[in-house]
Hints:
The protein is an alpha/beta fold. It has helices at residues 6-16, 27-44, 46-49, 100-107, 131-142, 156-163, 177-191, 193-196, 217-227, 247-251, and strands at 52-61, 71-78, 87-92, 113-115, 128-130, 168-175, 202-209.
Amino acid sequence: MATLQPNQTLLVLSALSNLGSCVTGTVDQIEAYLTRAITSVLDRLRGDIGPWQVVWGPAVYQAWDSDLADNVMYVAKGTFDPAQPPQLVVSIAGTNPYSVFDWLLEDGFVSLQLPWLYGSPPSNLNPKIALGTSLGLYHLVTMIPGPGQPGFGTTLQEFLQAELTGNTPLVITGHSLGGALSPTVALWLSDTRSQWDPNGLATISCLPSAGPTSGNRDFATYYDSQLGGSTRRIHNSLDVVPHAWSQSDLAA
C-alpha cells in the first residue's frame, strides 16, 4: 500500500516529466535519458507511491534548431490501491528553464488568442486560447514517442484508443506551463472523445499545479461546464505564475 495520498502521488508523477530540463541532445537521446530517469525514480519510490510504470513515452518535442526538451509528455499506469483497478496518468512538463522557445512563445505569446475549435460550446460563449497554449497543445497531441519507447509510432489519442479495454480513470497533470497545458489537453480529450473513446470508458480528471490561465473568460467558463467538477487546481498565492494572465491579479 502506498504511503502517499493520491494527489501527492499525482504531483510526483507530474514532477517526473521535468527530469530532462537540463539535458541536451537529439529527441531520441533525451527520450532515452528520460525513460531511464523516470523508471529509476518510479522503482525507488514504489513503497511511497505504489507500483507505476511508463506505458507511453516519454515523448519530446524540439523546436527548430533546439537541442532541448521544449515539450515533454508521458503516460504512466498504476494504482493508488491494489484493490482498485489501474488508472492512467498523463504527465506534461512545465517550462524548460533553458528553453527560449518555452519562455517567449508557449509562455509569453498570449496577446493573440485563437478560437477553441473542439466540442460544442454554447452559442453565447466564444472560447479562445492563447496562441502559446495552442502551440503547446498542437505539439503534445501530435507527438509520437521514438524507437524503443513505449507507445512508439502512436499519438496519445491512438495509444488511449488501444489501451482502454474497461472503465479507466484518466488523469491529466502538469506543473507551471504544464499547469496551463494539462487542462487544455484534458478538455481536448473530452471534446474529441468520439475519436478515441466512443464507449465512454475513460473518466477524465485533471490536476494542474501553478498554471497560468490557458485562455479567455469564455474558455474558462466552458472548461468548468465540462470538467470543472473533476478538476483540482493547486497553486501558491505567493507564486506569480498562477496570477497570469488575470488583469486584476497582475494589477494588485
